[in-house]
Amino acid sequence: MASVVDESSSEEGNRKKIKLSHEENASTDADHTLDLSAHIRLNSLGGFQLSEILSENSSSKSVFLEGTFDKVSHKAVILLEKLPIPKDAAKVEKLLNNADLALNLKSKSEFEPNAVDYAFYPAVCQGVPLIHIKATVIYPATSKHAEKYKYQPSFIVHETPGIYKSIVLPHLESQKFSLQWVYNILEHKSETERIIFEDPDPDVGFVLLPDLKWDESEKNSVYFIAICNAKNIKSLRDLDESHLPLLRNLKIKSLDAIYEKYNVAPQKLRVYFHYQPSYYHLHVHFTSVNREIPGCHFEKAHLLDNVINNIEMHSTYYQEVTLTYTLKSRRKLFKFWTNWSEVLFILTMQFIVISNNTPFLYLLCNDYKEDMEK
C-alpha cells in the first residue's frame, strides 16, 4: 500500500509524504518501481474522479472517497479530514478579521429569545485558507481497501477462550495476512527516517515511530506506534508472564523517548493495545489523552498498565478471560461468528428437546441470532 499525505498550510504551502509498504499480496521489486513512478505523478487532487463516497464520520469530520486519477490507471481511496482550528492567536485573529457572517434565523436561543445567532460559513471568507484539510491517498487501492473503509454496521461479540481456539484462531491461521511491511520497518528496509527510538533486542526490543494518522504538526494530538521485534506474538491473547519484561521495557523506554523528543509527559498519553488488532503482529498505541480517535474506547482498547497488572495477578489471564469487542458485518471473521451462531443454535435446540429445559446459553444464543437477522 502506498499513501500520499497532502497537508495544506497557508504559510508553508503544500507538503507531501510518500510511504511505501506491503499489503496482503506482496509485490515484486519490478512492481515497486512501477508503483513509485505512479506515486510521483500523483501531485494534485484536481484530477480525481469521484465514483463513490464510501463513508463519512461527523464526529471526526472525515470522509472516505473512492475514485480514479487522470494520470494513473488504478483506483484510489482518499481520506479527507478537517484539521483542528489552530491555537495560534495570530491565526485565530486572522480568521476573525477575514470572516463574513450570515444570519442563522433557524437558531434562536431558548434562554435568550430576543438574541439572534449568526452562522459562520468558511466558503465566504475573503481568500484566506482558515480551515485546513488533510488528504491521505491510498494508491493503488484494491477492493479490500474499499470494503475496509465502506460503512458497515458493527456488533458486540463476546470471545471466550473456547471460541478463540475453535473459531478465531483457525480463521487467523487460514488467512494470508502479509506482515512484510512490518518486517521491512523492523529490518530498516523502509521508514527508517521516521523511527524515533529503537531497542534492537530480539525478545524485549521494539521500534517506535509516529503513526501516519498524525501529521506531526499538532503537538497536542500526538500518535505513536511501538512495534515489537518478536515475530511470534500475534495479539493480546498471546501475552503471558513470560512477556512482562517486554511490556515493561516497551512502556518505560517509549515514554522516555516521547518525552525527550516531543516534551509530552507520560500522564498525557493513552497507551493501549487494540483487540482485535488491525494487523496480527504485537504493537502498542501511544495517543494524546486530549485526542479522541477511533479505537481508543473500551470496546477495542486495552490499557498497557491494566494488561501488565492483569498478567501480574494471573500469569495466563489473557488465555482464560472472555474478551468483548465489536466486529463489522463485512469482516470475514464476522461471517465465522455468524456460522458458529447458527450451529450453536441448532445444537442448543437439540439439547432443549432432550432436557425439556431452557438453559441460559439458549437465551444468549437466541438473542444473538435475532441480532444477526436484523
Automatic annotation (TrEMBL):
GO terms for molecular function: 5'-(N(7)-methyl 5'-triphosphoguanosine)-[mRNA] diphosphatase activity; RNA 7-methylguanosine cap binding. InterPro entries: DcpS/DCS2 (IPR008594), Histidine_triad_CS (IPR019808), HIT-like_sf (IPR036265), Scavenger_mRNA_decap_enz_N (IPR011145). It is found in: Cytoplasm; Nucleus. The keyword Nucleus applies. The keyword Oxidoreductase does not apply. GO terms for cellular component: nucleus; P-body. Residues 12-26 have a biased composition (Basic and acidic residues). Keywords: Cytoplasm, Hydrolase, Membrane, Nucleus, Phosphoprotein, Transmembrane, Transmembrane helix. Its EC number is 3.6.1.59. Residues 1-26 are annotated as: Disordered. PANTHER family: HISTIDINE TRIAD HIT PROTEIN MEMBER, M7GPPPX DIPHOSPHATASE. This is m7GpppX diphosphatase. The lineage of its organism: Eukaryota, Metazoa, Ecdysozoa, Arthropoda, Chelicerata. The gene is DCPS.
